[in-house]
Amino acid sequence: MWVAAVALSMLTALPLTLVVRDSVATQLGSSLRAEAVAGGVDYEWWQEFADQARGVERTFTPVIIGFAASLDAWSRLLDASPLPAPVAAALAIYLGGWIVLSGGVIERYSRRRPLHAVGFGSACGRTAGRLLRLALAAGMAYWILFTLVHSWLFDTWYVRLTRDVDAESTTAAWRLSCYLVFGALVAAVVTVVDYAKVRIVVEDRRSAVMALVAALRFIARHPSQVAGLWVLNGLALLVVMAVWAIIAPGVGDAGAGLWVRVLGTQLYLAVRIAIRLAALSSATALFQPSSR
User: Fold this and answer.
1) What is the Cα–Cα distance from 107 to 198, expressed in whole angstroms?
2) Helix (H) or strand (E) holding 271
3) What global pTM score does this model have?
4) Is 277 exposed, middle or buried (0-12, 13-18, 19+ CB in 10 A)?
5) Which residues 6+ apart lie within 8 Å of 186 measured at CB?
6) pLDDT in tens, the chain (292 residues)
7) For 8, which of 96, 177, 259, 268 is 20 to 30 Å away at the CA?
């Protein structure tokens, strides 16, 4: 399951990577600048490339280096920053593939025995339609969060609170409070949707709406267990991110070191996927004893 999830991530990103590669190759050609860029980072050339970048090429910025990429991703999430159209399309494809895979993943965790390829594929196919309907309902909730709620928090409430405040520390504290509130709301929606997925697969539910209602009932009956599990999974993610912040590679020369940095980054992403699978596994394990 982990290999399938990692492969889905890499295959989704590959077309965008090839587009950026071709754009860089076209711009550099066989010039002397190409040799300089191949030997290390040339920020002057990078700025020239960024100034004329379009579409997915606009993502090729210095923030892709090391831990800055993770910080940029979280910043985009909390600030509800729009993505370039090609990236948004790739993200939609990735999420759709992940939704289909999650049916087989939860089925495997709930049965606690190997399903093998045929059983796993059958579980994915059986629950795909229901999980996609659930994703549409969840999409409405996310749309409300990232448009209406985010706008009210940061464009109305935050502005009103800091209008007459001169101290930067105070405005920063209010900004952080808004981030925490918004992050908590996003986490709450993710948690409800995860337990709705579990109920659809484990109980063979056909209604996405009723699965959401049942998930809310389950969380209301077991608030401490659900919150504790969420904290444990969150801590696991924070530990991995903290370790990556320490060891994340920066700019270096070309050659073998370059491939070590690339493989290290891919390993970090693979561990992040493993944590996501662990979150689904633990949610399934928590739900099953209470469902008997």
Assistant:
1) 9
2) helix 256-291
3) 0.84
4) middle
5) 77, 142, 145
6) 899 899 999 999 898 889 888 888 887 777 767 777 776 677 777 787 888 888 888 888 777 777 777 777 878 888 888 888 888 888 889 999 999 999 999 999 998 888 888 998 999 999 999 999 999 999 999 999 999 999 999 989 888 888 878 788 888 898 899 999 999 999 999 999 999 999 999 998 889 999 999 999 999 999 999 999 999 999 999 999 899 888 877 666 666 767 787 888 889 889 999 999 999 999 999 998 655 4
7) 259
Task: List the structure tokens of 161.
Answer: 């609170």
Q: Tokens 């101290």 label which residue?
A: 167
56 CB-contact burial (10 Å; exposed 0-12 / middle 13-18 / buried 19+) = buried
* Tokens read off for 254: 């070309």
**DSSP code of residue 251:** S
